[in-house]
């Protein structure tokens, strides 16, 4: 119900209202709200911005005082209870670190622990009312399902703030519209209010305001606008408006405009139309420059009855600078490439989309994670802008982007939002006892709109996450859709398609799609597609161009994908390899089964069986799944291969490659491991085992578990019988053929320094392939086998 102003009452009506308490909001017996057991005397509301009506910062009124809830130990179960208190059926998510802005007053609850079935929040465990060691920077919020409880009579009214809110921001280009490529980097600022899109008055507009707007639109920084040009454009538009009644088109053709920058008839016509619409909705914008959203700035909105809007002013214009991934023109790309740039000290890992992932920082030439303690939007925005994206859309905690391994470098990062790098923010150095990888921090950044998702689509699938891949080709006016040849199509290509469509990770890349209806699209328009997996769109991958060469013709052999919002992420425990490596001279009569499975070097075929021996480098490998989905073999049980000699099934032909390399990368010895048994050997404390190979059981590795291949089992080795003494690199690669999709393939390789004197071997300095800085990796490969080679 909308509030009614007292000024609308007549004197007699006001007097009557004062005499009758029901006018002041006291409910009559017939409309008395239903009170929930245990919630007597409590009221709940959603507050903060920017938000939708079913989400926000949770506030509780107790003893007449409104307060908030700390996010410590907050869970989705607690969010379910609170959403029901607010009159919604359930929660779909929750937020931390004051995503909807910090509250004021008391912090009523801390360490709130609910099972999700409680009728009231008072039934949940906590530290007690008003007992908290948090600040309002840790206020919790909820995202409820937009569905009300049937027959809910709400005494806990959701007190939606009555002031207007800026929901979205966009730039509307004035010059060269239709010819400028996406993303749009310069134009009139428009904000979306509940009644539609409106312009912003430029009176008092500052560079801080532009910085916030550019951040929301996915750009790391802003640049000065040529105000003289826009002023001249407005004057010409005003003259064109004053010269009526001649048709507008004839007046504009008489205007002479300097060629740089070019102003066409359409530019003046659009500006004139915008001037006549009086579409100003916002003025008095005052940002500090560190805000992640324009709604967090001080704003003044025009009222509906304001007859004069922005007198003497004009629409605010903003010009943004795109990051390296989104440079809008080749000139910008060349300019950015020409600037000397050192190696970045911050990166994102494990995200399904560009601009999201687990935050990792480089310290002492080694990459490590950041603890989520006190992690907030300001710190996340510093990371996003440092990497060439906009401000942060979300600061993630609790290893939402998967757990890292190795060091945790930073904790309690406190940024103002103005720092050029996360390392410039005050922070606390950390030890292993202070934090665990279950609290790794992550970010989701604002990205520029590029429109790449409109150039590709999936058809024929059972859901929008799967189908035959169709691409759009041709020029404007002659666009058409076509199919992609399935030859050599695999997981890496599927990763790019799923990323381009915003559908997460690739679950499968399919070379045959005969079971999906192709509809009216039958022409194959692309072949020979080869991607690295990191491209933003399919047109950035290598392909045959206009020449189509497809070994298997027909629509049944065209490319398809199955996408997923989550994926596994395998990581080898490198320290265990270093600790367990040793040499064994094994008699040939004990290697018949290994020879059958091709686990020995080629020279073993000409050996004097069963006499003699082979020299084997043995080691244990412990493979962790740190992703957000279980790792499952690509093939189902019906296609697993039984190996009689060893008495087990192989669920993947090649699961791991083992190689001995020279300093220049030449392979001198190799081994491989088929996944004869993928199972959960051990798991973290709170994770239950799901996969076991016994009795033809399901194979896989659960999230939070690891599979251990001991050094004393067959084929867990490299045959180095023919290797000469020297310095080498030991390399282990998991899932080398990308048969199974993962969120991150860059951490699948492990390397060690290796020194072999013909009798003994020293394996040291083992590390995951992307765990060191680029310079440290160069030093590693330049001096393999040197025991004095320390990475600093």
TrEMBL record:
Ranges of compositional bias, category Low complexity: 329-341
Single annotated GO MF: protein-lysine 6-oxidase activity
Cofactor: Cu cation
Post-translation changes: The lysine tyrosylquinone cross-link (LTQ) is generated by condensation of the epsilon-amino group of a lysine with a topaquinone produced by oxidation of tyrosine.
EC category name: oxidoreductase
E.C. number(s) listed in UniProt: 1.4.3.13
Keywords (A to Z) from UniProt: Copper, Disulfide bond, Glycoprotein, LTQ, Metal-binding, Oxidoreductase, Repeat, Secreted, Signal, TPQ
UniProt GO BP: collagen fibril organization; inflammatory response
All copies of domain SRCR, residue ranges: 44-145, 171-321, 346-446, 456-564
Cellular compartment(s): Secreted, Extracellular space
UniProt similarity note: Belongs to the lysyl oxidase family.
Role according to the record: Mediates the post-translational oxidative deamination of lysine residues on target proteins leading to the formation of deaminated lysine (allysine).
Name of protein: Lysyl oxidase homolog
Organism: Mustela putorius furo (European domestic ferret)
Gene: LOXL3
């Amino acid at each position: 119900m909308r509030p009614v102003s007292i000024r609308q009452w007549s004197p007699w009506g006001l007097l009557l209202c004062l005499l009758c308490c029901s006018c002041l909001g006291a409910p009559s017996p017939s409309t008395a709200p239903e009170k929930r057991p245990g919630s007597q005397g409590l009221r709940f509301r959603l507050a903060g911005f920017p938000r939708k009506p079913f989400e926000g910062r949770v506030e509780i009124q107790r003893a007449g005082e409104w307060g908030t809830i700390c996010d410590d130990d907050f869970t989705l179960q607690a969010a379910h209870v609170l959403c029901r208190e607010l009159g919604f059926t359930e929660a779909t998510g929750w937020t931390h670190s004051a995503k909807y802005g910090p509250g004021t007053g008391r912090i009523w609850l801390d360490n709130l622990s609910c099972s999700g079935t409680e009728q009231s929040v008072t039934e949940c465990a906590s530290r007690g009312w008003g007992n908290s060691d948090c600040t309002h920077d840790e206020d919790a919020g909820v995202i409820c399902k937009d569905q009300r409880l049937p027959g809910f009579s709400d005494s806990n009214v959701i007190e939606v703030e009555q002031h207007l809110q800026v929901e979205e921001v966009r730039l509307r280009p004035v010059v060269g519209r239709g010819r400028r490529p996406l993303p749009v980097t310069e134009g009139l600022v428009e904000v979306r209010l509940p009644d539609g899109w409106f312009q912003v008055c430029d009176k008092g507009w500052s560079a801080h305001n532009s910085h916030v707007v550019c951040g929301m639109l996915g750009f790391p920084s802003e640049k000065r606008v040529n105000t003289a040009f826009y002023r001249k454009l407005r004057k010409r538009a005003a003259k064109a408006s004053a010269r009526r009644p001649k048709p507008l088109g004839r007046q504009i053709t008489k205007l002479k405009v300097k060629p740089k920058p070019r102003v066409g008839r359409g530019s003046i016509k659009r500006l004139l139309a915008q001037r006549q619409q009086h579409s100003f909705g916002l003025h008095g914008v005052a940002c500090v420059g560190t805000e992640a959203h324009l709604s967090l700035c001080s704003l003044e909105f025009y009222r509906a009855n304001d007859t004069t809007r922005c007198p003497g002013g004009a629409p605010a214009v903003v010009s943004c600078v795109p990051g390296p991934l989104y440079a809008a023109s080749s000139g910008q790309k060349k300019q950015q490439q020409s600037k000397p740039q050192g190696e970045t000290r911050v990166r994102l890992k494990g995200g399904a989309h560009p601009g999201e992932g687990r935050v990792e920082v480089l310290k002492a030439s080694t990459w490590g994670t950041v603890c989520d303690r006190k992690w907030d939007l300001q710190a996340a925005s510093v990371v996003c802008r440092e990497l060439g994206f906009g401000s942060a859309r979300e600061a993630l905690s609790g290893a939402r982007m998967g757990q890292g391994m190795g060091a945790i470098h930073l904790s309690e990062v406190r940024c103002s939002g103005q720092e050029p790098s996360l390392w410039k923010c005050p922070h606390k150095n950390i030890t292993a006892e202070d934090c665990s990888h279950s609290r790794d921090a992550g970010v989701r950044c604002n990205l520029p709109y590029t429109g790449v998702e409109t150039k590709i689509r999936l058809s024929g699938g059972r859901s929008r996450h799967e189908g035959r891949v169709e691409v759009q080709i041709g020029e404007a006016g002659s666009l058409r859709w076509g199919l992609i040849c399935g030859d050599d199509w695999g997981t890496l290509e599927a990763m790019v398609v799923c990323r381009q469509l915003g559908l997460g990770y690739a679950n499968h890349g399919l070379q045959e799609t005969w079971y999906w209806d192709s509809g009216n699209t039958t022409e194959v328009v692309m072949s020979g597609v080869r991607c690295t997996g990191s491209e933003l769109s399919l047109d950035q991958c290598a392909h045959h161009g206009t020449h189509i060469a497809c070994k298997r013709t027909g629509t049944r052999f065209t490319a398809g994908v199955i996408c997923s919002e989550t994926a596994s992420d395998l990581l080898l425990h490198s320290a265990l390899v270093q600790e367990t490596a040793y040499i064994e001279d094994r008699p040939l009569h004990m290697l018949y089964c290994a020879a059958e499975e091709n686990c020995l070097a080629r020279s073993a075929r000409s050996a004097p069986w069963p006499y003699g021996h082979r020299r084997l480098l043995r080691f244990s490998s412990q493979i962790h799944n740190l992703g957000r989905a279980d790792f499952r073999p690509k093939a189902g049980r019906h296609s697993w291969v039984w190996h009689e000699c060893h008495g087990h099934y192989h669920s993947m032909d090649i699961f791991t490659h083992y190689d001995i390399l020279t300093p220049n990368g030449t392979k001198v010895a190799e081994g491989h491991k088929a996944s004869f048994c993928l199972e959960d050997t051990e798991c973290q404390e709170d994770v239950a085992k799901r996969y076991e190979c016994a009795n033809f059981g399901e194979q896989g590795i659960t999230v939070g578990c690891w599979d251990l291949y001991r050094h004393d089992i067959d084929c867990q080795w490299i045959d180095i019988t023919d290797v000469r003494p020297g310095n080498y690199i030991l390399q282990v690669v998991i899932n080398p053929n990308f048969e199974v999709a993962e969120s991150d393939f860059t951490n699948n390789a492990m390397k060690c320094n290796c020194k072999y004197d013909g009798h003994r071997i020293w394996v040291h300095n083992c590390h995951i392939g992307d765990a060191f800085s680029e310079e440290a990796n160069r030093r590693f490969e330049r001096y393999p086998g040197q025991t004095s080679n320390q990475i600093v």
